[in-house]
Amino acid sequence: MAVATFDVFETVLVRALGAPEHVDEATGRLLRDRGVLAVSPMVYAAARRAAQHDSTTDVAVHVRLPDLAAATAARLGVPEIAADLVAAELDVERAACRAVPGAVARVAAARARTGRGVVYVSDSPLPAPFLQELLEREGLFAPDDEVLASADVGSSKQHGGLFDVVAERLGAPVGELWHTGDDRWADGAHALERGWQVTLDRSAHLAGRERLLAAGAQATEGVSGRLASAARAARLQGREEGLDPGVVSVAGTVALPLFVGFARWVLREAELRGLDRLYFVARDGEVLLDVARRVAAARGADGPELRYLHGSRRSWRLAAAGREGHDVVGDLWIPDDFRAEELTPRELLHLVDLTPDEVAAIAPARWLTAPAVDQPVGAAGWADLQAHLQRGPVGAEATRRAEERAELLLAYLDQEGVTGPGRVGVVDVGWTGRATRSLEDLLAASGREAPAAYLFVGLLGPAERRLGPELFGRSAAWLVDAARGLPARSEPGEDPVMLVESLAMGRQGTTTAFAREGDRVAPVLAAPTNPVASGWSFQDYRRALELAVEAFVDSGPAGPEVDLRPTVWAQLLDLWRRPTVAEAESWGAQPYGEDFANQRWFPLARPITARRLLRAAGFGPPEWRLPLYWRNGSVRLSSAPVRAAVRLRDAVDPERLARVPRRLQREWLLRRRPRPAPDRP
């Protein structure tokens, strides 16, 4: 009769701590928190590993946990606490171990195939009854199953002898023994040379950027390791659900640390500032709020009420233009990175909530008809259009609409409690502060109470000037706060705005206005759902992020307040600079808006053609080309010759070449024989 055997760790069980070695560090933290040890967790972990290394002189025999604990305690000079070390390590393992997604079904299939229970074999100092306890809790152990641990039986897979013990106990021909494990040597080579059937599955190991995330565990008191484990859980569960592996990777290894790190900071800031309610602004606030609610629930402590607030840059700006004493047309807002003369009449009218047809019906003009309506106005055209808007019925209509928008937005804010009693905070992605300034101007003009704080993912350099000293003082940013000495860690061409906003895409359509529905004020959406959330794996991305956040929250208490920003930057930039093919294909398909009205969208990444590369190098006439937002993603999708050409082009750094003569001069000066020092008086 055939028999199925399974390795335990990294095959059917994983620890929600990151890599296996993080168990020692977590045990050290627990011992510190319990007051058992005064040394740092790193000191304990080093002593524990040294004790295991020195005790395992023969790989055929593994030492039991009590013996390892005694050796570790002796190294630390406190032999009397050996039992405490055993208890702490077992508690850490209990709290950390989780079934690998899909493992329960695979083990059940093995039982059905063989008609008998499975045998678990593990190279571990942990006793077999304890391993059985973990397996039972995770639904992996049935009454006819068995567990063999190397420390108990005196033989190991690492040496191969444990396979002989299993075969002897079962009395089955070796050709009918099927082993599944993750280690090529211990689970693969030794079983194969004894004639066993072997399945190697290393998918439960930390992979790719998960390892980079886990590398920050020491600097973050284990939080980065838990994030890495959560990313792995999302990847493995995503495989079971058939999710797109490219977006699953981005969700787990990049979006998870970004949004969890921000949520932890926001909740802490709310506590420090005594905030009663936090409002997360649409649409980027959708995912920020979802993650914050999950993180807040896991913390358990009383915190601020977390709410969603409809709004957008355009809806707030148009409403603020209608505040008392404001010239709607004379103080027309032109979005960042644009000049009025570069915009078309249609785009400029969009900024005052008018369409060409509406204006033509009030006061016809030549630039309101095709093709002029969709061509840049130029300097003279802008002056003509501005004068046309400021005089007569067109300006009056623009002012009437702005005043109506102001009244409706204020009513919505009152209704949602933004202007009500208590201390209120507003949470948004941020960047330049224009939308926030618009909201504040409207509230100030109406005499209403302003929010006590604004909390952003990032604020770029211009934000301080645009917000003004008082409002800037009520604002704070987490990942980037340029005016306060927290710059972006990205290089030129690596837009931090794009990096974050591509991860924060919402499901809903843009809020364009507000309207009365009975006795309430409701948002008016451009579409019920975000049109650019279709056509790529958006739903898979959001599902994977949900899985990752759930796995992180499930991994244990919130833990200490640690700085996750270096970890987040490392993950963001690794994706931007070194994407996998799967990530470039799936994440690169995401549409990104390149105009201020978000009316034109292009994929983040697309293959680079040889023609485009030649034009970029100065060969041939310049021409308009579809934008390449994500350069390295585009390179990854390109043909081999194009990738080689880009690498060659990148290898030549003009700035470094320009410094060569100066460097040679300095080398010559350094190599000259030093002149003797003049005699001192």
CATH topology of the largest domain: Rossmann fold
SS elements, strand count: 16
Shape: elongated
- Helical fraction: 40-55%
What is the second-level CATH architecture of the largest domain?
Answer: 3-Layer(aba) Sandwich
Q: What structural category arises from helix and sheet content?
A: alpha/beta
Task: Provide the CATH top-level class of the largest domain.
Answer: Alpha Beta
What does this structure look like?
The protein is α/β, with parallel strands linked by helices. The chain folds into four domains: 3-200, HAD superfamily/HAD-like (Rossmann fold, 3-Layer(aba) Sandwich); 270-315 and 406-531, Rossmann fold (3-Layer(aba) Sandwich), CATH 3.40.50; 325-400, no CATH class; 581-654, no CATH class. It contains 29 helices and 16 strands. The strands form five sheets. A five-stranded parallel sheet has the order 5-4-1-6-7, sandwiched between helices. A five-stranded parallel sheet has the order 9-8-10-11-12. Helix 6 links the parallel strand 4 (119-122) and strand 5 (146-149). Helix 11 (223-241) packs across helix 12 (245-273) and helix 11 packs across helix 23. The longest helix is centred in the middle third of the chain and has 29 residues, at 245-273. It is elongated, with a radius of gyration of 31 Å.
Present the secondary structure layout.
Blueprint: E1 3-7, E2 13-15, H1 22-33, H2 41-55, H3 65-75, H4 82-96, E3 97-99, H5 103-114, E4 119-122, H6 128-137, E5 146-149, H7 150-153, H8 161-170, E6 177-181, H9 184-192, E7 197-200, H10 209-214, H11 223-241, H12 245-273, E8 277-281, H13 285-299, E9 305-309, H14 313-320, H15 345-350, H16 356-362, H17 378-390, H18 392-416, E10 424-431, H19 434-446, E11 453-459, H20 463-467, H21 469-473, E12 475-481, H22 496-501, E13 511-517, E14 520-525, H23 538-554, H24 565-577, H25 581-587, E15 591-593, E16 601-603, H26 610-616, H27 631-637, H28 640-651, H29 654-671
Parallel strand pairs: 1-4, 1-6, 4-5, 6-7, 8-9, 8-10, 10-11, 11-12
Antiparallel strand pairs: 2-3, 13-14, 15-16
